[in-house]
Write a structure and sequence with these properties.
It is a single chain. By secondary structure, the protein is an alpha+beta fold. 17% of the residues lie in helices and 37% in strands. The strands form 4 sheets. Strands 5-4-3-6-7-8-9 form a 7-stranded mixed sheet. A 5-stranded antiparallel sheet has the order 10-13-18-15-16, with no helix packed on it. It is globular and about 60 Å long.
């Protein structure tokens, strides 16, 4: 499910593979891995609020390991994005399930997917709808996905290589359109190719600040609903040429680090994506009126939130990170990364993760404390993810007043 044009929630979430790889099933190399898929659905998908039984059944059926590179197949059933070549990834299982449930697939639907990637999202949809038409802008990915889908006998999926901005006019109109890359605005051809009464799901926004938007076409116009924050790579081609707001790698910062913003009152923190096991708390915040609480009963629950930004390591020498934290019965996990902390993940120009820096860890029970740390920025850093939470630790962690200030090299 990528484009060059693809879900980073996704290059960005390659980090999750490292963070939860220890949860792999002992049966990773055996059979069709049905047991692994059942565990994936129960632990990462149902538990996080996906309730559509048809979607859950399809997620249990599709062999995700068949859509991964050989070196990644051991990790196919953790909730993480994994590399598939051409600087792209296969989306985390929860993201695939969330997007699929949101478009409400029906047995007679004809669905257009923008961003074939590995073909995994198309395969999940194949079990739920009449026809899937999928477009991939990266030629090698498109060809490989088409061959894979044919080999696995997903016969109701039709693919092509092309610019998803233009849609697929000869097969329009579509009952549903699902987009796995982020433009600033909805491409006009997709609006025109959406059937009356149809539904479109697309991540919109700036390069590193995006939100899922659901649109329904009524009387020729789109009715809009704003959903959760997310992070995808930009839609390339014509869409990227029209982008007005560009990233600022000389001014890396955290947005909504005081956790006050929740514009649509859905309980999720604005500007943060891939949120797990957290609650916005409206009392006893050391700054403002809100803070955020992460809770986990054991080390299998990833209580976290992520935010990404551009950074130019040739110009930015260090980051000053400040945060206020409070803990209750926090116990770190077996792995070094399973700790209550703020973690900075640095990526190079090819979006490859190469260095992580931890601010923390914090354990035990402590009242509110303020902490500051200076972090050296690697010269080859071009993007970074800020990851906050328990990260595999158990207990309760409150955070507030998080800020990042950059200093020139």
């Amino acid at each position: 499910m990528t484009c060059r044009s693809k879900l980073h929630v996704l290059v960005w979430m390659l980090v999750l593979g490292c963070l939860i790889v220890s949860q792999r099933s002992a049966s990773a190399q055996k059979g069709d891995r049905r047991e692994d898929r059942n565990r994936m659905v129960s632990e990462y998908i149902e538990r996080e609020g996906i309730t559509n039984q048809r979607v859950l059944a399809s997620m249990r059926q599709v062999p995700r390991h068949e859509f991964c590179l050989p070196q990644s197949r051991n990790d196919a059933y953790v909730d993480a994005a994994l590399p598939i070549g051409s600087k792209q990834t296969i989306s985390p299982p929860f993201v695939v399930a969330y997007m699929t449930q949101t478009i409400d697939p029906q047995p007679e639907d004809r669905v257009l997917e923008i961003g074939t990637g590995s073909g995994y999202q198309a395969a999940v949809l194949s079990n739920l709808v009449k026809e899937v038409y999928s477009i991939e802008i990266v030629k090698d990915l498109g060809k490989t996905a088409a061959e894979r889908l044919a080999r696995l006998k997903y016969t109701n999926v039709t693919t092509k290589v092309g610019d998803g901005y233009l849609g697929w006019e000869e097969h329009a109109p579509f009952d549903k359109i699902i987009v796995t890359c982020s433009p600033e605005n909805v491409p006009k051809p997709l609006i025109e190719q959406l059937k009356e009464g149809g539904r479109l799901l697309i991540p919109l926004g700036e390069r590193y600040q995006q939100v899922f938007h659901q649109f329904e076409k009524k009387d020729g116009k789109l009715e809009e609903k704003t959903l959760i924050s997310t992070l995808f790579v930009p839609m390339t081609g014509k869409s990227e040429d029209q982008r007005q707001i560009k990233p600022d790698p000389l001014n890396p910062k955290v947005l909504n680090g005081n956790f006050e913003e929740d514009e649509n009152n859905d309980g999720y923190i604005d500007h943060w994506h891939y949120q797990r096991q957290l609650t916005l708390v409206d009392q006893n915040a050391p700054e403002g009126s809100r803070c955020v609480l992460f809770e986990a009963d054991d080390h299998t629950h990833l209580a976290q939130a992520l935010q990404a930004t551009a950074i130019d390591g040739t110009k930015i020498g260090s980051l000053q990170v400040r945060v206020k934290y409070k803990t209750e019965n926090v116990v770190s996990g077996r792995e070094s990364h399973e700790a209550a902390s703020v973690i900075i993940h640095f990526y190079d120009e090819n979006r490859k993760a190469f260095e992580n820096v931890m601010f923390g860890p914090w354990a035990g029970t402590h009242d509110w404390e303020a902490a500051t740390k200076s972090i050296t920025v690697p010269i080859k850093a071009r993007e970074m993810i800020v990851r906050i939470g328990l990260n595999g630790a158990s207990g309760k962690l409150w955070l507030d007043d998080l800020s990042i200030t950059s200093k020139p090299r």
